[in-house]
Every structure is written in structure tokens, then in C-alpha cells.
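Data availability (excerpt). The following record was deposited with the supplementary files.
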Amino acid sequence: MMRGGQRVLMVIDDEPAQRRLVAAIAARRSWRTVFAADAEAAIAMLATPDGAALDAVLLDHWSPDADAGALIGELHRHRPALPILMLTANGSVAGAVAAMRSGASDFLVKPIAAERLLAALDVAAGGEASGELRPLTEKLSAPLAFDEIVGSAPRFRAALAIAAKAARARVPVLIEGESGVGKEVVADAIHAASPRARKPIVRVNCGAIPTNLVESELFGHEKGAFTGAFERKTGRFQEADGGTLFLDEVGEMPFEAQVKLLRVLQSGEVHSVGARHPREVDVRVIAATNKTLSVEVEAGRFREDLYYRLNVVQVTIPPLRDRSGDIPALARHLMARIAQQPGLRQLGITDDAIALLSTYAWPGNVRQLQNALFRAAVLCDGDALTRADFPQIAQIADGGEARPGIAPPRHGDAGGVTLFRPDGNLRALDEIEADVIRLAIGHYRGRMTEVARRLGIGRSTLYRKLGELGIDQNAA
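Predicted structure:
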């Protein structure tokens, strides 16, 4: 219940640092935060004015309460409609599944990223599910190689082809695309296909690091370099030496840190905070952003020289709404991966559910689709997901309203193969044939014998067409 323009969030957590972080992030959306250290304090608070004004609860799964599910049930007994968000640590999928079955609305993974929490709070406040949360399945899933990435839409396959070719070089790669399109998946595939695959890929979310700690996080610091530096810290560049550094949300990097990043890319040397001498590192940088960095450069928010250093090879991942023909295969692929998580099982998905998912525009892209499938799988009692397991999406579709979530039918798009040009004329036959072959390779995961059989041609003919049409088998 919003009072004076503020919504109220109760955080059930006994860690002061975590509580301060949540409060600071929530304040960006004008949420006021109240705290409870344990279950008893949380239940008692419901009887207070703050408790009566609650709009959402964030529950740390590792709080002193032994049974988070019981606490969720008790909270819902007092306030049935109160959204409850579960905060969980890595590896606790089974606990999160149990909590959601007890009535948790959503879950987040530690450490909390600001955009994930804000998106969850937006949903709790009554907005549409944005899919900006990072589900546990994404956190725990094994990386995919290029030939395992699902998608046959021409623009998507073209982006993967560029990424596959760049993987074999040492040059920096900039991956642009909306939140949730799979930029990290592509970065993992680039690393796995590169000569550095035996070395680590180190990930840094530039948007989740406090501004005053970015330099220390990236480059490290010496003991005593600044107040609070009680011991020496190895920076992420040194951790990635010989391997790959993935800079996610690089557009959020503070301007001062951009200067130092540019120097490292130019010199190949890292100068830790407080160190007397630099250290040479051999690191391949892959950067990702949901912004258009060229626009950020024009606006003066991102250094032009750093932009050109990072943008040696650019890969632009199209949003899921522009490749709706990929949704059936993608949904089944995600269901198979979700089934591997503790506490879950293999489920089918009916044609009516697939049809519903294919009409939705997925503003949160693949991440939102995965989140919706995970939630449905957790709560499903049957052997297959049906349209009824996606009530929010079905409600929007049944309402027939022109809302951002619904994708209008697209003339001339046959399951991911576009037949017509923008001017209304048919595309050339060889272009359509190339798209069909790419679609088949993606759908059958690169199993060329199966691709040839389904297309009704021999393997030798298929390989000849790959050469004639300029199709890269590894990224097709």
C-alpha cells in the first residue's frame, strides 16, 4: 500500500551490509525499506503500521530461519496477496524451488545486481513481469558451444557467424543487444571456440560495482592503498591472465575507470592501486552492453577512443520478438535444461502453450522466457506445461489489448524464414534456400545427416550448397 508516493519493502535478513545495499538500491524506485532479522520479528511487524503498509517482502534464504517455506506460508496466511521475493545463494536451486512452491513470487541470486532487484520490485508494484531477473537456471547452466545455441532466424545466425569468426582471433569483441538476449551466452561461446578455451573466462558486471570500487575490482590494490584496504587484492585482469575478461554492462562504467581501462588495452599492463610498478597481462576482452555505445559516445557518456578499442568486432544480437519463429525450439531446449536442476523433472510442453508463447513479444527476451518457463515448471503438477501454466501471458493475449507484450503477426515470416523484402517483393530463391538450410542446421543442432535427410537431399549435396551459399556450418 503506497503512502505519500513511497512503497514499503520488508527485508528479512540478519546481515547489516546486505540490508544497507538492498535499501540503497530500492530507494532508486522510491521504496522505503524496513527490516526484520528473523521470522519472529517479521511476523510481529505485520501488526505494526509499517507491516500494514507493506507492498513486498525480500527474504534471505540463508537467514536464521530453518524453514523459509514455513515463513512464506505464515506471511501469506496474514497477507495472502503480499509479493515475496526469495534471495538465494549459488547452488541452492532446490531451496528456491521449495520456496516458490510455498508461495514465493520470485527469486534473485546473490550477489544482488541493482537492475535485477529493481525489475523484481517493479513487478511486485504491479507492473508486468519484465524478465530482468537472473534465474537460477541461467546461473548454473553449462556454457553452450556455437553449434548448441538454438536459433535459426537469419539476423541471429549472421550475428553468430561473426562471433564464431572473431573467436579464433585475439581482438576485442563488443556485443550489443537488449537485456536478456543472450549476450553472455555468446561471450561464453566465443571463449570456448578460442585458443584461450583452456584458460578462465572471468566475468565482471560493471553496473553492479560501486563507483568507488571499480578500479580496485578491475585492477586490484595493495594492502594499505586506501582506507579499508586491509589486505592485498588481485584484480580481475590478473585473474583472467591468459584467458578472457567479460565486461558486462560496460556502458555503465564510470568515466574515470574508462580512462584506466583504455590504458590497459593500449599497453597490456595493469597498475594496481597503490602498486609501484605495473604488471604485464595477456587478456582478451569481450564487452557487452544493452546500450548503443555509439549514441553514448555522442552524448559524452562514453569515451570515443575506448569505444573504438572495444569495438574491433561488433556483434549485435537481435531481440527475441524479431525471431519469434525460434521460440518453439528455444522453449523446448530451455525446458530440457531446466529439468536438470535439483527438485525439478522432465516436463513436456503442449502446442497450445507454444502457440501462446510465440505470440508474446518478450520485452525481457530469452531471459524472460526462461524465467517464465522455470516458474511454470516449478508450479506444474502435470506432465506437461499448458497454456494455463502461463496465466499472466494468457490474460494479456485473451484481453486482445494492444500492449507492448504482444507481437503482431508478421506477413511473410514462415517459421523464421522471411519470404518477402521490406518493399513487398519476394526475396531471391537462393537467399530463401540459404535461410532454410540455416534454420534446419540450427533446429537439428548441427547433425548434418539429419539435416540432409529432413531436407530431402544427400549429404554431399548439402555440403555443396553450404559452399555455394556461403554458409558457415559452425555458426549456421
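Summary of structural features: The longest strand covers residues 54-60.
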